[in-house]
């Protein structure tokens, strides 16, 4: 029996195949953007070939496929979704395009707002109105709903968003209209605001509902198609889809909340991080993933990745829980430049894969982060991607000389060191965004480092943040795919219960929590999760009376049994101070929403563990190389180890370089390395 | 050899920015008044020990550039009587403030027992006492009629709350939420303090100081390079402000002479009208802020905002003019003069920077509603940001921005969310949509304005109207052949059907429950000849119902079949 994690990226589709012994094999195919299922099936074919069986025989033996998809993300980023319509309350058709009138770049008069996902002529209105208290002011005009349906049919829309004013307070009109639209437009994908995100704020709800309708038909078609093709191959296992909230869900649930896949790709990372800190008995970490153009950072606290409910994608607000993954434009391809103040800057422009960094010799002339890494001696020009891609040191040095060193009046070495330092500080800033800004001290968290370019930079940026422990998983490029296999089923539920905290009815709270719980258990049952593998995590969104943003305070199912409001009061004040610099103990508070995250534990594959070996690592030494050491600001001859030969228990003292085909780890003076049971390289401050 | 590390400079620049953004997030999340928590009418900043600007996050730039001078005043005022744990409150117009309702909190930051920096937050409070709730009094003739003046005063000393001072201040302010929002500003400063301390811990006082100075120098250099790109010469521009709120049919002129030589630039406002007897006067710092925020749109938008920025810019504003009035003038309308002020600057610089100027932005016509909310038995005050945000002017190659709002905020201010608005005030929205044909036509169109309609459902409603852009000549003008955007208009329809059109500065009392408020916020000016506009864009706008057939044919010269 096999389990497969599949991460469809922009360029490559990564596969992690686990057999029943737990042995892991990696596969990689080119992504096929017009129909990602093709690249995915190509990968399965390769696996079948490797096992000398037919595709059908192989697929029949697969018990689990977990799949991260960028179908939804790409549609929104490129504007290539399906024609979508919006039915909304008369007088309010423009909210999703207005975006509350914000211009993100304040002083830039050339800044353009993102194109609306639904153009105005497909934003149709009907007469109806519910007020703030949920009372009907104007009954729904059903004829106008029918007329809207007809017009949308004529426009051949594939997705329809339905969002009425104040429908969070009373969904009756939306339910009535939804019934008509389902009847009149049976083939369209319908997204209803009161089902999708029953919470106050009209713009947030409209935007979320529109995003869902925009990507819904694509996700529905893609998953239906994929399931059918797997079915033809006699697939008898379970197919799960990675969700933005860091969990997985069945195709049926995913089709309903298609916008829940907008962060499907990177969402595997944080969960993978947990697996790699597990041998160190840690339940928290910060994960970073540095690829060619971007750097993602996320924080996991108490075994749970941080989640936000006001994320943005291409300028459009998404009010669904999604992992708090902070992305900045810093990667191997980030271009170094001098601004008009004479300051050295790195990125966000990237040389991408074409022409790529100057050292690729494909015509790139601008100096990139990879060029600096090469000039500093961290990369071996003859062993990049295991020697598959020859790097040209002279081209790297030339680009740095022309564009950085000469303008700043520095040597090439100094300029390269500066580029290295500036991009490290960008990334350190990215880590502060997910830690310090959320009230967490990064020094308390191990740093798990993924992505091809990450491990060269990680130890130095960890020094900047005084992070004492780093973990670099072997083959860190399949990090997200691994995370997918390790994710649990996860569903989020919300109930609005607005009440002064002082007059909270514990009974009502318990009833609402119980209602969410039964809904949750029903969903998990559909996904065949046994009772004893179901877990419920509750939280309450609290605020001081008069505030308009809440602080989420969690409580367990056990605590719900003997609910103590005072305990939550104390947690709220402490968290408010941690986040915002003050608390007002004694001030009146109010409850706004109750939330439940229901988790269905999946059976997780055991990542293969190595037996412990002696500490000696001389067997892995490949040679020596002259490389730059930031702390002493100087070059030194340092040993280079073959990472593939280092096994559990082996130790390496900094400074050193550890090389594998796709990853190089820079170990500065102040760190020592030990290889752990999963084969990860663990760097500790000495 | 210089001890300056260019790399550390880059690092600090980014770090300071990130800290001010986090302070801003704190305010957004914790404030009570919708003016702050929904519309983001606030700024945050860090300053060095002398009060020089290190970095800011400027959701409303016209407030932002008035923090540095106040910080300097505070440093001079308290001298060596500043201690760790102090918190200082300020709003006074005649010691550097913008407007009394814009109340700032300053917190000195000490490291190793030395004053090393300041953190500050400044936000538009829902009330500041005075004659009219909500802080706008169109009938004011002197500062005391506008609200409570707060020169620098310590709310906390050495970490101890001065309860008597606190009680004194808030005894003079109508709404208790202002206390909460000042607490939130203090929280924002504490976040800034915590984060900046880490910077000093990491790099040490001397090193940070040297690099701050170098950062100012680098920014100055960048600004000089930008100025050097403007052709040398003398440029003049003017614009008219309508009605000073006291003298019927009064008109005031803003006149500016810009002289650019080498890498320096000067702005001389000689010829500008004398100060008015009403509240249509801008304190000097507000005038300087308005100039700076407009000028920053004409240079590289990426320049860091610190004290180095201002060094190559010289400004002369005659004392006693309405852009630099003498004590004790009323000045609450000062921030709102940014619109006509920027008009004069764009006119002056259009020929020098034809590809950088924009056509005029819609001048704001604002309305505050004050009244009693029968649902919760409490007073409500709100600024109708959602209905006032018109369009910005087009620039070379790019249409204006729709529904962006007053240039003072440069797109940083948010319209209230409709559902939050109906929860926070008793009023009932009927319509809030783009206003067809409101954009000034051009090869590049101005931004669209909007139309709003709502029913007043509170009791004892009063509307304070203050703005401009209603007069035909005050429409957002086009440039290089572009046409002006539509004019502003506000109208109240009383339950008996009678219409009331307020003047551009007015107080309209006793609006009964059931009154309908209607506002048309105008569009921005167009750039270039509309007949050169790409036809596909014209047709798309028509299809979207944002352009009439008549205008498409008459103004853009589109030929339409099947009429």
Quick recap of the structure?
The complex is a heterodimer of chains A (686) and B (563). Chain A is built from 18 helices and 35 strands.
What does this structure look like?
The complex is a heterodimer of chains A (686) and B (563). By secondary structure, chain A is an alpha+beta fold. Chain A has 18 helices and 35 strands. Among the domains of chain A are: 83-211, no CATH class; 489-600, Dna Ligase, domain 1 (2-Layer Sandwich), CATH 3.30.1490. In chain A, strands 13, 14, 15, 20, 23, 24, 31, 34 and 35 form a nine-stranded mixed β-sheet that branches. With 563 residues, chain B is an alpha+beta fold. In chain B, the strands form four sheets. Chain B has a seven-stranded antiparallel β-sheet with strand order 2-1-5-4-3-6-7, with helices on both faces. A five-stranded antiparallel β-sheet of chain B has the order 14-15-20-17-18. Chain B has a four-stranded mixed β-sheet with strand order 8-9-10-11. In chain B, helix 1 (6-30) packs antiparallel against helix 6 and helix 6 (177-203) packs across helix 7 (205-228).
Question: What fraction of the residues of chain A are assigned to beta strands by DSSP?
Answer: 25-35%
Radius of gyration of chain B: 24 Å
Helix content of chain A: 25-40%
The assembly state of the depicted protein chains is: heterodimer
Q: What is the molecular shape of chain A?
A: globular
Largest interface: A-B, 65 and 89 residues
Strand content of chain B: 15-25%
Count the beta strands of chain A.
Answer: 35
SSE order and pairing:
The complex is a heterodimer of chains A (686) and B (563).
Chain A: E1 2-8, E2 12-18, E3 24-30, H1 36-50, H2 55-60, E4 62-68, H3 71-78, E5 84-89, H4 95-98, E6 123-126, E7 129-130, E8 136-138, H5 142-154, E9 159-163, H6 172-184, E10 189-192, H7 193-196, H8 202-232, E11 238-242, E12 248-249, H9 251-256, H10 268-277, E13 285-290, E14 295-301, E15 304-305, E16 307-308, E17 311-313, E18 316-318, E19 322-323, E20 326-328, E21 334-338, E22 344-350, H11 369-375, H12 393-408, H13 412-434, E23 447-450, H14 454-465, E24 469-472, H15 479-485, E25 489-500, H16 506-526, E26 534-544, E27 551-556, H17 557-561, H18 565-580, E28 589-600, E29 621-629, E30 634-642, E31 651-653, E32 656-659, E33 664-667, E34 671-675, E35 681-685
Parallel strand pairs in A: 1-4, 4-11, 5-6, 5-9, 9-10, 13-23, 23-24, 30-32
Antiparallel strand pairs in A: 1-2, 2-3, 7-8, 11-12, 13-14, 14-15, 14-20, 16-19, 17-18, 21-22, 24-35, 25-28, 26-27, 26-28, 29-30, 31-34, 32-33, 34-35
Helix pairs in contact in A: 3-8, 5-6, 10-15, 11-12, 11-13, 12-13, 13-14
Chain B: H1 6-30, H2 34-37, E1 42-48, E2 53-58, H3 61-64, H4 67-78, E3 87-90, E4 102-111, E5 114-124, E6 153-157, E7 160-161, H5 163-171, H6 177-203, H7 205-228, E8 233-242, E9 251-261, E10 264-268, H8 284-296, E11 313-316, H9 338-349, E12 365-373, E13 378-383, H10 385-388, H11 418-424, E14 428-434, E15 450-455, E16 459-467, E17 489-493, E18 499-500, E19 505-511, E20 516-521, H12 535-543, H13 549-554
Parallel strand pairs in B: 10-11
Antiparallel strand pairs in B: 1-2, 1-5, 3-4, 3-6, 4-5, 6-7, 8-9, 9-10, 12-13, 12-16, 14-15, 15-20, 16-19, 17-18, 17-20
